[in-house]
Write the structure tokens for this entry.
Amino acid sequence: MRILTVVGARPQFVKAAVVSRALRAAGLEEVLVHTGQHYDHGLSQVFFDELAMRAPDHNLEVGSGSHAVQTGAIMTGLERLLLADGAIDRVLVYGDTNSTVAAALVAAKLPVRLAHVEAGLRSFNRRMPEEINRIVTDRLSDLLFCPTDTAVRNLAAEGITRGVVRTGDVMLDATRHFGALAEERAPLERLTRHAPGAYVLATVHRAENTDDPARLSGILQGLGALGRPVVLPLHPRTRSRLAGTAVPPAVEITDPVGYLAMLTLTRNARRVCTDSGGLQKEAIWLGTPCVTLREETEWVETLEGGWNRLAGADPERIVAFAALEPDGAPPRVGEVHGVAASEAIARALAEAD
Ligand code: UD1
């Protein structure tokens, strides 16, 4: 069984790192393709280094561009690769980026069978490019690996039940695996001058926030009024939109940080404020309450007990929600008892025809 894995953006490197290990352990051969969607060292190579991933077999080096340009370039490069190889049994894609949907379209049309990790997530907001990417990718996949029960139900509601496997969340595997390493390799004192619990960690990169000046300034205003320092490692997309926007003195902007540093910063933060999908769950797995800077979340389980609250870009809601304490133990998001998600995925791939 030869699997061609396609990754391109920061969170996909983390997911693929744990699944690749499980594929190897299950005796499956993997060809790793990096689309080049993320190319800055801090968004790409640092993850390969920290996660001890082998170098990609191919890098399509597509870089930035409009959705059509980026998606089209990935499709062209990947089709060429798949045709030249001729012996790929299945294409494996992750999440909801342009790299995901481009690979899905190419695989489905050649055709090569397609498996999707993180299938079934929905925000029900089609203005998000990620939502379009998810819907198309799930529709084209023949193996759909769901992190949560909600994801399974979302697919069923769209009439997709064949090939659906509830595996749990591979990001939980990654948090568990790399969490211990993070304290040792990326200790807090090397990342910030703030003590544990004395700062808020924030990230902002979604197009709906970065490309709308009113939302971006609402978020910054809210973060600036939390009464604590805010550590804000900034995605290049957001940095490029900041010109002319006032950044409050409490908000400390840094370059993007690696995965291990992010785990340490998350675990030790008083609160996490984010529009990232993955970070909402990582916060909860590491015991830190989250305020989500969006109007909806695909990870509805995180909302239980107020461990995650949806504040949108409204400064007053951001401040009010960050001050609230959650009730009870953190929800167990993305857990399936007994088997790690990455192992369940490797097993399902090994057993599939
Ligand atoms: C992409 C995904 C998003 C995911 C995020 C993780 C899509 C539609 N979006 O968003 O779902 O949560 O990755 O980080 O696929 N840029 C750089 N250096 C880089 C990469 C990007 O400077 O290495 C800048 C460029 O100006 C680029 C912009 O960021 O135009 C946006 O990059 P892009 O890859 O299109 O989307 P992300 O915002 O990273």
Notes: Residues 9-11, 37-40, 43, 64, 96-98, 129-130, 205, 236-237, 240 surround uridine-diphosphate-N-acetylglucosamine (CB under 6 Å). Residues 186-323 form a domain with the Rossmann fold fold (CATH 3.40.50.2000).
